[in-house]
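hey so u asked for the seq, here:
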Amino acid sequence: MIKIAIYGKGGIGKSTITSNLSAAFAMRGKKVIQIGCDPKADSTGNLLSGKPIEPIMNYLREHDADPASLDEISARGFGNVLCIETGGPTPGLGCAGRGIISTFNLLDEMELMEKEQPDVVLFDVLGDVVCGGFAAPIREGFANRVLIVTSGEKMALYAAGNINSAVENFKDRGYASVEGIILNRRNVEDEREKVEAFAEKNRLSIVADIPRDPAFQTAEDAGKTIVELAPESPLARNFFDLADRLLSEEAAGEFEESAIHPGKLSDCGCL
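ran it, structure tokens below
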């Protein structure tokens, strides 16, 4: 099973990247789960024709009880991708990191992975703050690889550096490792060179280079991914190529299961 956490600065395009990658995996015949780990709960919209689903944290607040079935907190999107959103606390109250941990505990209790038996699980995670809660996908064995989305902008690279450092801090515990960098272009000056310098400094590779293209907005306005809307386009090819690369690495045994198994999480590490 491929289990990847996709991190990056807020607004850098993680959800667009993740949903297109999910769609590409699905079109390769893979059974995919995408879990949005952001309080905005906007990760899966382009797989669901723009229709939002109820985030798990909203459900728990409104019902004061655990859901009776997975159907109450998920939806099937393009390519039969199973879409789940963690959501977050009421604005100004509570900790979003703890919300992610509560969600993961619930999904573990509902035996999501055992029942669904997915080929690919993608976690779309906010990367501005790599606290214990937002690091849960990597520090608790849910994901065994990390992809970092960045542009050549200063703050995007700063966030990417923080994310890479956080993953490195877990390295000696057998947790997830960084698979590489996805360059999501913003057309800043010398962008490729800046990201290449960052990658070289951190001994990482650029695994995909996504051009800035108005077609992304056209697809989003239609509530679709580029992979669904224009699967034969050069833009969609970027995501098929990345999916194929990850699938070939998995088939070659380069994806190793984490040394730990997901269990009940107790604390996000926040004060």
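Residues 258-262 have pLDDT under 50 and may be disordered. The chain is about 35% helix and 15% strand.
lmk if thats what u needed
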